[in-house]
Design brief:
This is Integrase catalytic domain-containing protein. GO terms for molecular function: nucleic acid binding. The protein is α+β, with helices and mostly antiparallel strands. The protein folds into 4 domains: 49 residues; 51 residues; 172 residues, Nucleotidyltransferase, domain 5 (2-Layer Sandwich); 63 residues, OB fold (Dihydrolipoamide Acetyltransferase, E2P). The chain is built from 14 helices and 14 strands. The radius of gyration is 39 Å and the shape is extended.
Length: 444
């Protein structure tokens, strides 16, 4: 006869056998098993009466008191198989409760569905295979872009970001640029420099950074970012990778650059972003000579700039619509702008026009390709604590906050020093006391 026992029950049996063989006392057995001596006596009686099987729990193998009826179980499973096929346990539980008045716990339902092959747990599902993708055939067909935030200058300067543009077909580095943060304006400057040098590629391949993709769920599915608008104007597609492994070429390039580029800049004595950006073309040429490969197809798919693309200054801008008031004014970035009171501008009242902000900080107002003259009327209140800060100027705002904290700390330090120093009246009293001390000493 096979008797199933737990580790606890096996330990009890061994101790009780020692008591029965007079190797230890009942008091000692009670200390070992953390039981009372009366319980040890009862267990010994049960062992002598029923043998080893008396040590096993009596309810083992018996149905539980809270067990659901088999008829109810079969009824639930038949309803799921007929009406709720493909439903998960949680959703099936909700529908059974609301539609069929069967209140079965979710985990109980999960076990029933798993045992009857109505639900496959996530851990037992076949994982989706991510097979390697072949590189593109032509140069300029797909350009992978990414930003790598790292301590590039090994403490000689603050941590910064390196924007990397690499061709998928050849592994050729096409553009590198250091910047303080991975912002829209920095990608504007880098993409423009790349396009002016090579032309327009067919598509860019990037991650789901907020610069490239609107990640906030909205009813407007057609909403795009400022960078996406620029690529749309230039007729360049952008593809988003679902994982870092999908854009493995640029990720591997980042890992190589974090080793080679850092050491090369150390040998060159480069310690700032400005110096590095001037020197980077030399490094790109050396890197491509060593690591770049020939494409399977020698055709270059970069497209030249057309006549409509020549106004790159206006294309690579941050553009937002603003409504013209009846006073011919509009507000942008806490500043009021007044339009010239011309006949054409009076027709713009109540209409939305484009406000352009350039990467260098200058602004312009445009409507249907016509730039409108303006003047600044009034600068509104400064940045408040709870104001929303756009990602494009987050770095400058943080620098401004840091500067304010440093100035406040200096003021607090001066005030502490001032409080620790005695006042002028106290200093005069101390001087008088020192002058009187010799006289008092002589009189004594």
């Amino acid at each position: 006869m096979l008797i199933t026992m737990s580790d606890k029950e096996i330990q009890r049996l061994a101790v009780l056998q020692d008591v029965r063989d007079h190797r230890i006392t009942q008091v000692r057995a009670a200390e070992i098993l953390n039981l009372s001596t009366r319980q040890i006596t009862r267990l010994l009686q049960k062992l002598n009466q029923d043998g080893v099987s008396g040590m096993a729990h009596a309810s083992r193998g018996q149905p539980g008191h809270r067990r659901h009826d088999d008829l109810l179980k079969s009824k639930c499973l038949s309803i799921i198989a007929e009406h709720l096929l493909g439903f998960g346990p949680t959703l099936a539980h909700e529908k059974l409760s609301s539609m069929f008045d069967l209140n079965i716990p979710v985990e109980t339902l999960r076990r029933w569905m798993t045992a009857n092959d109505l639900w496959i747990p996530r851990s037992k599902r076949l994982k989706r295979p991510y097979q390697p993708r072949y590189n593109r055939d032509c140069f300029g067909e797909l350009i992978q872009i990414d930003g790598s935030y790292h301590d590039w200058f090994e403490g000689r300067a603050a941590k910064c970001c390196l924007l990397v543009y690499i061709d998928d077909a050849t592994g050729k580095l096409l553009h590198l640029r250091f910047c303080e943060a991975e912002t829209t304006f920095d990608y504007m400057l880098s993409t423009r420099a790349y396009i002016e040098q090579y032309g327009k590629p067919l598509a860019f391949y990037s991650d789901k950074h907020s610069v490239f993709r609107v990640n906030k769920k909205s009813r407007q599915d057609s909403q795009i970012t400022q960078f996406g608008r620029i690529l749309n104007n230039l007729n360049i597609d952008i593809i988003f990778a679902n994982s870092p492994q999908a854009k493995g070429r640029v990720e591997r390039a980042n890992r190589t650059l974090q080793d080679r580029l850092i050491k090369e800049m150390r040998l060159e004595g480069i310690g700032s972003i400005a110096e590095a950006n001037i020197w980077l073309p030399c490094f790109i040429e050396q890197f491509n000579q060593k690591f770049a490969k020939c494409a399977r197809n020698s055709k270059n798919l970069h497209r030249p700039l057309t006549e409509s693309d020549l106004e790159l200054d206006d294309i690579f801008t941050w553009q937002e619509p603003r409504k013209v008031t009846k006073n011919l004014t509009l507000t942008y970035d806490k500043c009021i702008y007044m339009l010239e009171p011309t006949e054409l501008n009076h027709k713009l009242v109540g209409q939305y026009i484009s406000f352009l902000e350039y990467p260098d900080g200058t602004v312009a107002i445009m409507h249907e390709g016509r730039k409108i003259n303006y003047r600044v009327f009034n600068k509104l209140a400064g940045l408040q604590q709870n104001d929303v800060v756009e990602n494009k100027r987050l770095g400058s705002v943080l620098a401004h906050i840091q500067q304010q904290h440093e100035e406040l700390e200096k003021q607090n330090k001066r005030s502490r020093l001032k409080k620790s120093m005695p006042s002028r009246r106290a200093q005069k009293n101390i001087i008088k006391q020192r002058k009187l001390n010799p006289v008092l000493d002589s009189c004594s």
